Amino acid sequence: CQKNEVSTDKPEEEKNYYQEINDINVLDKNATKFIDEEITSDSRIVFSADTPEDAIPKVGTGIFIPESEKAPYGMLSEVLSVNKESERIVVTTEPLPLAEAFESLSIDSSSPWETTLEGVFDEDGNPVEYEIVGKPGEATRSTDFELTENGLSIPVKTGQESGDGSYAVVGNVGIFFEKFDLSIDIDKHGVNGISLVAAPSLEVDFGGNVELKAERERVIELFRKQIHTVRFKIRIPTPVAGIPIIIPVRISFDCLFEASGTVAWDFGVKYKNTLDCKVVFDNGKWGSEVKSVKSSNGNPWTVTQNLGVDGEIDLGVKVGILAGLYTTNLGIGVYATPKVYLGGEAELDSEDLYKVNPSLEYGLKISSEVFAIAKLFGKDLGKCNVELPDYTIWSKALPLLPSLSGFEAKKIAGTTKSATSGSSGKQVSVEIGWRQNPEYFMSSKDVKTGVAIFNKADGTEVASFMPTPESGPDGSYSYKTTVPGLSTDSTYYAETFAYWDGYKKFGRDNDIDTKVRKRIKTLKIGKSEYYTFSYDEKNRMVSYDSKIFVVDEWICDNISVVYNSDTEAVVNDGGEKISVEFKNGLPIRIGRCSIKHDSEGHVIGDGVACENTWYDGNIVTCYYEPLRETSHISYTNHPNLFYPDMICTESCSLPDYYNILVQHPITKNLPSRIAATGPYCGPGSSWNITYTFDSDGYVSSFRDGEGLTHSFEYETY
Question: Average pLDDT, stretch 438-457?
Fold first, then answer.
């Protein structure tokens, strides 16, 4: 016994192929199963040759094809013609404006969108490897894709050799949407407004090398064949059941490398930029705007090894965002190309690289194009296409290597000592310091800076130092190092240098002064007078504390010197103020005392009523007393000698003169006696003053004509 089988399928002639909604024939699965080819265009549908007559759309009707395997985005069209061929039936269509399908429709960001990621594809439509990631820096293995919550990370690798050079690039491209909103407002079958707002965020992280010589600008599309489009679709329900809005979104992008001039570079580039793109239809007019709202403004470029550039290079990601409607290939969208650039002239192998330390300019530029096909939305306005010119979002110029300032080499006080055997001179320690700006183009290489000491006579390197920096409050770095054992008999110079990856590039020369310089610390005259001196940061005497017990019933106050400028100062003894003028660092007038100098800078003075005029280097102080007698004093001085200005006493009668003849001490041949001759308070009076010198040629003591011993204590500076 065989069981009877009952079929519930209706004969083809009894089936329903359409449902009419809002004057739109919505094809059901009984009709869509006869679609023979996947619908990829808004202009035709191909049915199989055996399609029943009632299932074939009628000319002049509006149809809607729901999503299916053969219609992945659905279709809303008007039938223009039907062409029956031997093996297929071709239905020609054109997009049906939404305003004809819907009397009223309002879509915005509050609508319940459903997003489906279809994948990443190359130019031939083949799938490309990618990874769904969360917010930047938060990787996830999920296959779920939320448009403004997730992004894509796409690995890239390409290279090419040609007659004018070669290039190779490997890395990742990341794309995220901080914002994506499509708004459509239809009322009474009329379009009130259309708006596409998208804020794509692009991340680029590449490494590679390039060697190009381009006499004119050359543009290379690096990944055109490898990465062509990212596809996803948005499905939005409408008040009309059975006719949802389906928006296919295509993101096309490529990496553009543009060069003009000569480039030979092993590079890295990393940057992030967010665009704000807007296309709006309002009051019958299209408007558009593309701008950069966020960009990483640090240096996007790194040098991994070689660098040689003479011209300009740009690297950018050209992004196209196209939002269509159902199966359409055209809609409203934006092309934008944010690109980082580098311009200048620099060559790592140049011997003078750090002496010149060339500046390179880098920044971010953007070019863009906005387009729209209004007919899709019920407004037959044709194609709107606007190309916006390139503009620079930001730019910055940086030196290639660290820039240094404030270089100083000075002897350390108290470090002078006898030289080693075989040398007649002294040895000193020198402190070298400089400041460094933290911003420079090759900062990713963590370039170290140091200083090398050379003997000026033969150019031999004496020592090299790379001190550890200290950070300052302004972000700069300061460096200090001590160089011991430099001979006072030799001359030296210092060259700063930059060091990285085996490169060592020297900067400019800086002389080092090893001469011993001293300044008076204390002065003791006989048993009753004692002076203590102090100085400012420029080694200028600012005061001396005079302790004089009783000298002819006269008590001396403390003396202070106030420098109004580098050319003028005021001496204050507690009551009287005496003006001091300087020229080229030497005194020319102190109160009423005129100070003259010879051609070698030695002091030859003509003083009037001036007592205790002391000269030490370029420091002169004068103690002023009420006018007693007029004395004309002519003497020759030397920076290593310290002289009191001897004047006539009240018992002198005018005109009484005396002359002090001074032999200039030379370090290796110091005189022990200085002769002073002339009438001293009486005709024919004369005397001899005996000076003693220390090992550096400075006066350590002398005995004046009154028998008082003047003893000096010095400090080096």
Answer: 88
